[in-house]
Amino acid sequence: MLGRTPTRAEYLDAAREMADMGRHFLAHLLAEEAAALTDDPSEAARILRHFPNPAHLRSED
Q1: Distance CA 32, CA 35 (A)
Q2: pTM of the prediction?
Q3: pLDDT tens digits for range 17-57
């Protein structure tokens, strides 16, 4: 990917790979980049819902 910006699809593919590997925060960051490249606000929101920020999911015990 030298010399060019990754596409939205490439960011989403990488986010899925990271989520599958258990790297949920990195998946969320990649999804944020994909969402930023999305013109449709509802699609951007859907992407972010699919890859939530794991820091916000922690419960207080």
Answers
A1: 5
A2: 0.84
A3: 999 999 999 999 999 999 999 999 999 999 999 999 988 76
* Short-list 4, 33, 3, CA closest to 18: 33
Among all chains, which residue has been given the structure tokens 């960051």?
29
Residue 60 CB-half CA count within 13 A: 0
Place of tokens 């449709």: 40
Rounded to whole angstroms, how far apart are CA atoms 25 and 55? 8
Neighbours of 58 (CB within 10 A): 8
> Is 31:12 a contact under the CB 8 Å cutoff?
yes
Is the separation of the CB atoms in 34 and 4 below 8 Å? Answer: no
pLDDT category at 58 given cuts 50, 70, 90 is low
